[in-house]
Each structure stands twice: as structure tokens, then as C-alpha cells.
Design brief:
The chain is mainly beta. It has 2 domains: 351 residues, Tachylectin-2, Chain A (5 Propeller); 212 residues. The protein is built from 4 helices and 42 strands. Strands 2, 30, 32, 39, 41 and 42 form a 6-stranded antiparallel beta sheet that branches. Strand 24 and strand 25 form a beta hairpin. It is globular and about 75 Å long. It starts with a strand and ends in an 8-residue tail after the last helix. The N terminus and C terminus are likely disordered.
Length: 657
């Protein structure tokens, strides 16, 4: 990765740049659905099956058709969630697989009544793709009291030995509070959509059996059939695994897809749905705190995933409408799933709720249901193949750090090194120091300080005009503050980042390999006083990723003046409100790397001169190539000519008698 990140054509002067305002795309013309500049433009008007009414629960969503999808019309029994659909090709009926719970418990549970954690896995049937669906009851009533949440149905592959045994359908569930780990992550198979459903016999109690260095998280798992007949799964963390058979091992292909795609948010991402259609692998995943989902594609399903322009879906936009133009706006859209027919996506399903989850208290005319929305699969295919996403965060100014890490104090975290992680953490503790630095008093003392080191040798003899730290805020990990700020101090530079050996599965942090690698006990000492620190402008913690620019001009000038000959500088960073924040690190790629933007007198002329010299060098190389080719060709011609002349002068052999 180059050390110098070139300046974008237009640089915002504001301290904070919202990613969502800087998206670009190539418009695609879609018949009957206008221009497609993002995934969300592919949603089509819902047919009116019965009638539109506001004389129903969930009136906040607007006039709506209760016959669409699956719902409890009176909201006096069940809330519904999830909602994948499989068509019975013999009967023509559509089967929806979902979860339900007692609406009296609200979403989170109350008064001794479970909310979603008391979910049962159920199925519903309709003659129409869009509904209405009739609840047929629990899918497996005699197993774990019918428990199931995050219910995800899919087809059994024809290359799976289970197919030869007559099995055609499978369902995976996760995240149920009923029976704990007994039900979590289990796969169930059936020969008919009406059941009976058998728990997978795979030697792992029916749970997906993953093989990988860091295990496999069994929450929010989505599974698709690959074009080679194998299965591919993705979980909430963006970990991807592939299996030849449901009964066999799932080999983890990569961990943390969200961290490996340019421009993709990587904090508070959930609800991924994966599918294969029109020759591409697709993933849509939702960033729950900002209520925005993102669309990714790959040609092989494992490598070279790219993010596409715009938003996949968001309840902040009125994109859900009926054929007469009436719009619906639900408070949340979650657990998306797709219905594919003839190799092309035809419809999308969502679990929707008319208020925020904590406001659904049971017996209050609020709740959740499943909707089915027509989708322009042909338009999406064209968009996916023509769209080129340009990430504004990848075009910020500045030099990259030579090292960055986090010192963490909590419990055994204090003994681990956090170099080499794709993010840095900030969490202030006001008990001591400026940020909470120093020896921790008790094991539960919690503080997280980021350290970032830069090589400034190029600038120590320059007349500096201004210096900015460009930090990419990735999200709020813990805490409730609606706003926050990042505070910066100077620290000693005699430290190593470290990228030691990994620890337990699904844990971050490394085992310290040498005494210079940063852990809490040898954290770089902060050399700024409390009145010498610099604080960023306030930013909304719900908005991420965003660029936070911090003016460190005076800090850097003073450091260079007070430390003649010093060629490196270390900044210590923390937040202001006792929350836990994630910011980008140098391992996070060009979209998240923290940059130091130094501007000095004569810089423009110097850069123009360097560019001109580079251009001359490139031109010289390009012009030299045909010259060399010409010389070689000429030499070959001369050699051939000499051979011909020699052959012509050689005396002919006399005939033998």
C-alpha cells in the first residue's frame, strides 16, 4: 500500500464527511421501474390483493393491505419474524417459513412472557406468492417445544448424498432463547415441505459443523446453493463457509467479509442474506444502528467481493409502495430473504415492525409481520454488472501510519497486544490521567487508548501551514451517547505495534511476542498535559462510517520545534464520553486507515515537479520499448541475411558416381 494517499478532486472542508452523501453509480435503465442507481431502485410496487386500510394494527405504516405476506390481523396472538419462501412445484403453492412468539410479551418480553426469545419455528401456506399466508403451526412441534428463530429455508443440493435418500428441503435456525444451545445453529431436513422434519444427523447434535481456525458463529446464518452444487453459508460476522454435504464439514473460507470490502461498514452489521442468481453471488447486509443495508457481489462467492453504489434498503426512504402509489413506511426492516424463480430474483421478504422494538410492549396494537415485495431481478443483474462504486473514504489526504495499536485494560485484555487488528478502540476512563492511562487499580478497570505513529522526516525542515488527522469513525460498540468527540494527545514513540499469535476462536488480541509490543502495562507514556490536547468537533455516534478531521497543526509544530532531529511522532487518541468507539486502522485498508495530512509552503510546486519527473520517466520507458523492439528486429533480419549469403556461397556437393 502506498504511503501517500493522493488528494481527491474535491476535498470537503468540514470536519466530518458522511459517507452516505457521497455515493456514485452508473444509472441503468429498467423498463417499468425508472433508472436504477442502487439496489433499492429494484423494488417494484406491491399488488393490492384485498384492500388498503388503516383500520388495523400498525396504522403508523400507512394505508396497507393486510393480505400481503403473513400477519396476525387482530394482533391478539402472534408477532411474526424471518420469512423465507419455497414454492412447491407440484402443487403450485408457496410455503413461507418463519418464527412467531406471543405478542403479549412485546418484542423483548415482559411480565414473565417471552418476546422473540420464546420463538417457535412455523410454516405458512399461500396460493399466491404475495399472500395472504395461512399459519399452519410449528414446523417441528415435538422437538424442543417447536423452538426456532432466524428461520432460514433452502433447497437440498442434488449432489448431496441426502438428495439420494429423498431429502429435498432444509431449514437452519439460530438465536433462540428456548432450550439454549440445544436448538441454536441446528439444521433440519425434510422430503416434503409439509414435513416431517428430521434433525440432521451429523455427529454434532444437528448443528452446522464448521472447520476453521476461529470457529464459526451460528447467528444470523444464511445459506445458498452454489453453481458447483456445494453449499455456501454466511453468518452475522460475515464469516463464509462452504460444504459439499449438509452432514459434512463446513470449511471456513474467510472471516469478517465486512472488513475486506472497500467502502463496506464493519460495525453493527447483521442480517446478511446470500444467494446465487444470474451468474453472480450476492449478499445484502443491514447496519442496524443506521438502518441502512448494503449490497455486495462476487463472481466466485469467496474472493473479490465488491460493494455497489447506494443503499440496498432503508426504512428512512419510502420505497415500499402499492400499485396505486400508496406508500408504506415501517419503523424497521429486518431479516431480508429472497425468492428466486428461473434463476432470477423475483421477490424480497422482510420482517417489519411499526415502532421501534423497545416500543412494542404487547397488547398495544403494535407488532411485527412479514411482507413480500416484487423485485426487478433483470434490472438488478444489469446494475450489478455495470455499476462501479467509488468510495470517498479512499480518496482522503495524507500519509499512512507506520504503526498503530490499542492498549486495553479490561481483565485479561491488559495482557494482550492489539497490533494488526483492522480497527482501533477508544474508551475513556475518567478515574485517572487524561484518558485513563496508567496502572489499573482493579481487574475490572476498563479503558482503551489508540496509539498511531507516523514518519514525519519529510516535513521537519518544511514551513508547515496546517496539519490534520483524518480518522474514520466506524461505529459505537458500547454506550448510549448520541454525540461524541475524539481527543488527541502526544505520546512517546519508543514502541512496537506487534502482530503476535492469535488467541481463542472469535477473540481479538494477540499474545505479546517481545517486550516492546504494546500491552497495557507498557503503554506509550502520554507527554501532553491536559491543557495541550486537541479535541475534534462533535459527531453523531449513529452516523458511521464518517471522516473525523482533527486540527493538530500547533501540536505538530511544537513537537518538531521541541524535538529537533526526531523523525517520528505518536498520537494517543481517546473518546470523551465513556463510550466504546471503533475507528479505522492501517490494516483496515484505504477506506479506514488513519491519515496525517501535512500541508507546507511550496508543497504544490514540489508535487508538480515530482509529477512532471514521474511523467518524463514513464514516457522514457514507454518510448524505449518500441526502440528496443526495433533494434532486436533489425538484428534478427541481419542475422538471417548473413545466413542466407553464407548458404548461397557454399559450393554444391558433386554427384557420386
Amino acid at each position: 500500500m502506498k504511503n501517500l494517499v493522493k488528494k481527491a478532486a474535491a476535498s470537503a472542508t468540514a470536519g466530518i464527511i458522511a459517507l452516505s452523501t457521497l455515493l456514485t453509480s452508473v444509472p441503468v435503465s429498467a423498463e417499468g421501474n425508472g433508472e436504477i442507481t442502487q439496489f433499492m431502485d429494484c423494488f417494484m410496487p406491491m399488488p393490492i390483493i384485498e384492500e388498503l386500510t388503516d383500520d388495523c394494527w400498525g396504522a403508523r405504516a400507512g394505508l396497507r393491505d393486510q393480505s400481503n405476506g403473513l400477519e396476525d390481523r387482530e394482533m391478539d396472538e402472534y408477532c411474526y419474524w424471518d420469512g423465507g419462501i419455497i414454492k412447491d412445484e407440484e402443487t403450485g403453492k408457496y410455503y413461507m417459513f418463519a418464527s412467531r412468539w406471543n405478542q403479549a410479551g412485546g418484542h423483548w418480553g415482559q411480565n414473565g412472557i417471552s418476546g422473540w426469545q420464546g420463538s417457535q419455528a412455523i410454516y405458512a401456506v399461500s396460493d399466491n406468492l404475495y399472500g395472504p399466508y395461512t399459519d399452519m403451526g410449528p414446523i417441528w412441534p415435538d422437538w424442543c417445544d417447536g423452538a426456532g428463530h432466524n428461520v432460514f429455508p433452502f433447497m437440498v443440493s442434488e449432489t448431496d448424498p441426502l438428495y439420494e435418500e429423498g431429502y429435498r428441503y432444509a431449514i437452519m435456525i439460530s438465536d433462540t432463547g428456548m432450550h439454549g444451545e440445544i436448538a441454536n445453529g441446528t439444521i433440519h431436513i425434510a422430503k416434503s415441505l409439509d414435513g416431517p422434519w428430521d434433525l440432521l444427523q451429523n455427529g454434532n447434535s444437528g448443528r452446522l459443523k464448521a472447520v476453521g481456525s476461529s470457529g464459526y458463529y451460528l447467528t444470523n446464518v444464511s445459506i445458498t446453493l452454489r453453481d458447483d452444487g456445494k453449499y455456501e453459508a454466511i453468518n452475522r460476522n460475515g464469516d463464509k463457509a462452504i460444504a459439499d454435504s449438509l452432514e459434512g464439514d463446513w470449511v471456513v473460507q474467510l472471516y469478517g467479509l465486512w472488513w475486506q470490502v472497500e467502502g463496506m461498514p464493519n460495525v453493527n452489521v447483521e442480517d446478511p442474506v446470500i444467494w446465487y442468481s444470474d451468474g453472480l453471488y450476492h449478499v445484502v447486509a443491514n447496519k442496524w444502528d443506521t438502518k441502512e443495508a448494503f449490497y455486495l457481489t462476487s463472481e466466485d462467492g469467496v474472493t473479490n467481493w465488491v460493494r455497489h453504489s447506494g443503499i440496498a434498503y432503508t426504512p428512512k426512504e419510502n420505497f415500499l409502495e402499492y400499485e396505486d402509489g400508496t406508500e408504506n413506511n415501517w419503523a424497521k426492516l429486518e431479516r431480508p430473504n429472497i425468492y428466486v424463480e428461473d434463476g432470477t430474483i423475483k421477490a424480497f421478504t422482510f420482517a417489519v415492525i411499526d415502532v421501534e422494538k423497545e416500543q412494542d410492549l404487547g397488547n398495544d396494537s403494535h407488532g411485527s409481520k412479514i411482507i413480500v415485495v416484487p423485485f426487478n431481478g433483470e434490472g438488478l443483474d444489469e446494475f450489478a454488472r455495470s455499476d462501479v462504486y467509488v468510495d470517498p473514504m479512499a480518496h482522503r489526504d495524507g500519509i499512512e501510519p507506520i504503526a498503530d495499536t490499542t492498549a486495553q485494560s479490561w481483565s485479561n485484555e491488559a495482557n494482550l497486544n492489539y497490533g494488526g487488528e483492522p480497527f482501533l478502540q477508544l474508551q475513556r476512563n475518567s478515574a485517572q490521567g487524561i484518558f485513563g492511562e496508567g496502572e489499573k487499580a482493579i481487574d475490572s478497570y476498563d479503558c482503551k487508548i489508540a496509539y498511531i505513529k507516523y514518519d514525519i522526516s519529510k516535513y521537519i525542515d518544511k514551513e508547515i501551514e496546517d496539519v490534520y488527522l483524518s480518522i474514520v469513525y466506524q461505529g459505537l460498540q458500547a454506550g448510549v451517547s448520541a454525540e461524541n468527540q475524539i481527543e488527541v494527545a502526544l505520546a512517546e514513540s519508543d514502541w512496537e505495534e506487534g502482530t503476535g499469535s492469535g488467541t481463542a476462536p472469535n477473540a481479538n488480541g494477540n499474545v505479546q511476542q517481545n517486550d516492546d509490543e504494546v500491552i497495557w502495562s507498557n503503554q506509550p507514556a502520554i507527554i501532553s498535559s491536559a491543557d495541550e490536547t486537541v479535541v475534534s468537533d462533535a459527531f453523531a455516534t449513529a452516523d458511521s462510517p464518517i471522516e473525523v478531521k482533527i486540527d493538530v497543526t500547533d501540536m505538530v509544530k511544537s513537537y518538531i520545534e521541541d524535538n529537533p532531529g526526531e523523525t517520528v511522532i505518536t498520537f494517543a487518541l481517546c473518546e470523551m464520553n465513556g463510550n466504546r468507539l471503533h475507528i479505522g486502522s492501517k490494516e483496515g485498508g484505504v477506506s479506514t486507515v488513519p491519515l496525517l495530512d501535512v500541508n507546507y509552503v511550496g508543497q504544490e510546486e514540489e508535487e508538480e515537479k515530482e509529477a512532471a519527473e514521474e511523467n518524463i520517466s514513464q514516457n522514457s520507458e514507454s518510448s524505449a520499448t518500441p526502440m528496443i523492439v526495433g533494434i532486436v528486429a533489425a538484428v534478427v533480419v541481419i542475422i538471417v541475411a548473413i545466413i542466407i549469403i553464407i548458404a548461397a556461397k557454399k559450393p554444391k556437393n558433386e554427384k557420386k558416381s
